[in-house]
């Protein structure tokens, strides 16, 4: 998703389309991710993580080839849909695999640690994409992504062992829908999942509009956008680092609250600069870095909380959580492009809306879904144990 962002203005110019049409290469692909995540989780619960992961990577490569060969904006959008539908597999199954291996006690810590490693790619991707755009053209970013996907595919074939040792029967689409319905009836699950979804809205509102603000409004080159974007992903990485060190001692719920507060503070700084008429790369990216630092603290914990409410449905829970994240992010990214007015205000407005809604979601989840509120991990483990026992009794 990130490597081609510096090329969005060039794609718009290449096909002579409007900003909102060019933006569909991002927003429609996120819809494809959202829908795909609904399928990957239950399929991996039934057939295993490894074969589903391999299938997704093959789909990703086919979509990348379509993007490279696209002659119109609509073929490019179609290729992005196929590419995204395949790439979603890693987003869903990585968390489920962690849950398979480490269980509820260490999941938040390991997700945070893993995310610190994983964000190195999004941190470098816009910089690489900006350089490729300046040296070649927008198609080169997809060539690069295709080559990387081949390397990942080989590593998966050689190194990934099956981690799902308790595969559950899959009776069809209605069985999958029943699983989603069961999850959505849980206030605790909804609190965690919707917090993660609205936090994604914050991030994707930014990456959807920031290239246009940098290139078209500030007149900066794509390479400079890619370099400043490192600040954002560095902030996310630092938030992950804090979570990896504190999640066991402090508890995931408290870290979610602290991270949400940090996100709100960053946006207050962003508004302060804009109201003073200050719009520079530093005045834009520094407050956003603070906001994304807060998201980096909160999101590994909300993701771990979501997949641990019903541990035996980790794949399904991860898939539904991923769907909510990408569906809300897709709507936000397309809408912020429609409201683009030559300033940074629409982008900051949408980011603020996401932070507010995430706080509302987790507050409701704590109030109605967890009798332990902001308890420590020991209390949260007790809650998960009670939930599992209740489900076993119903079964």
How does this structure look, described?
With 395 residues, the chain is mainly alpha-helical. The chain has a single domain (5-159, 173-394), classed as Up-down Bundle (Growth Hormone, Chain: A), CATH 1.20.1250. It is 84% helix and 0% strand. The protein contains 15 helices and no strands. It has helices spanning 8-15, 19-22, 24-47, 49-69, 73-118, 120-135, 139-159, 173-184, 187-217, 222-250, 252-275, 281-309, 314-338, 345-369, 377-394. Helix 3 packs antiparallel against helix 13 (314-338).
Q: Can you describe this structure in just a few lines?
A:
84% of the residues lie in helices and 0% in strands. By secondary structure, it is mainly α.
- Number of DSSP-assigned strands: 0
SSE succession: HHHHHHHHHHHHHHH
The CATH superfamily bears the name MFS general substrate transporter like domains
The amount of helix comes to over 70%
Q: What spatial form do the alpha-carbon principal axes imply?
A: globular
Beta-strand percentage? under 5%
Task: Give the assembly state of these chains.
Answer: single chain
Return residue spans where pLDDT drops below 50 for at least 5 consecutive residues.
371-395
Q: According to CATH, what is the class?
A: Mainly Alpha
Q: Look at the structure and give the mean pLDDT.
A: 82
Computed over alpha carbons, the radius of gyration is 20 Å
Q: What number of domains?
A: 1
């Amino acid at each position: 998703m990130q490597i081609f962002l510096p090329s969005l203005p060039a794609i718009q110019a290449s096909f002579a389309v409007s900003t909102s049409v060019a933006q569909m290469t991002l927003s429609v692909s996120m819809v494809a991710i959202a829908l795909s995540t609904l399928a990957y989780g239950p399929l991996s619960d039934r057939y295993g993580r490894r074969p589903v992961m391999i299938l997704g990577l093959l789909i990703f490569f086919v979509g990348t080839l379509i993007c490279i060969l696209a002659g119109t904006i609509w073929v490019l959008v179609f290729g992005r849909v196929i590419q995204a539908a395949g790439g979603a597999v890693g987003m869903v199954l990585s968390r489920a695999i962690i849950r398979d291996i480490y269980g509820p006690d260490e999941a938040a810590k390991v997700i945070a640690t893993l995310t610190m490693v994983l964000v190195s790619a999004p941190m470098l991707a816009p910089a690489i994409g900006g350089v490729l755009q300046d040296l070649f053209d927008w198609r080169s970013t997809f060539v690069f992504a295709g080559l990387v996907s081949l390397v990942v595919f080989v590593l998966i074939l050689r190194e990934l062992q099956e981690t799902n040792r308790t595969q559950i029967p899959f009776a069809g689409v209605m069985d999958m829908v029943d699983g989603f319905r069961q999850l959505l009836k849980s206030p605790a699950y909804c609190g965690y999942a919707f917090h993660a979804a609205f936090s994604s809205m914050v991030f994707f509102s930014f990456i959807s509009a920031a290239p246009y603000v940098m290139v078209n409004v500030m007149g900066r080159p794509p390479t400079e956008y890619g370099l400043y974007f490192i600040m954002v992903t560095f902030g996310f990485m630092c938030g992950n680092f804090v979570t990896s060190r504190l999640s066991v001692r402090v508890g995931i719920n408290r870290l979610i609250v602290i991270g949400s507060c940090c996100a709100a503070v960053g946006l207050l700084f962003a508004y302060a600069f804009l109201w003073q008429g200050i719009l520079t790369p530093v005045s834009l990216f520094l407050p956003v870095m603070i906001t994304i630092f807060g998201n980096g603290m909160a999101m590994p914990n909300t993701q771990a909380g979501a997949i641990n409410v019903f541990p035996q449905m980790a794949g399904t829970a991860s898939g539904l959580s991923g769907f909510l994240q990408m569906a809300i992010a897709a709507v936000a990214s397309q809408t912020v492009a429609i409201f683009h007015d030559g300033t940074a205000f629409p982008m900051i407005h949408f980011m603020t809306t996401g932070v507010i809604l995430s706080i509302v979601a987790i507050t409701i989840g704590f109030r109605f879904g967890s009798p332990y509120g902001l308890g420590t991990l020991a209390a949260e483990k007790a809650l998960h144990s009670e939930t599992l026992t209740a489900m076993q009794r119903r079964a």
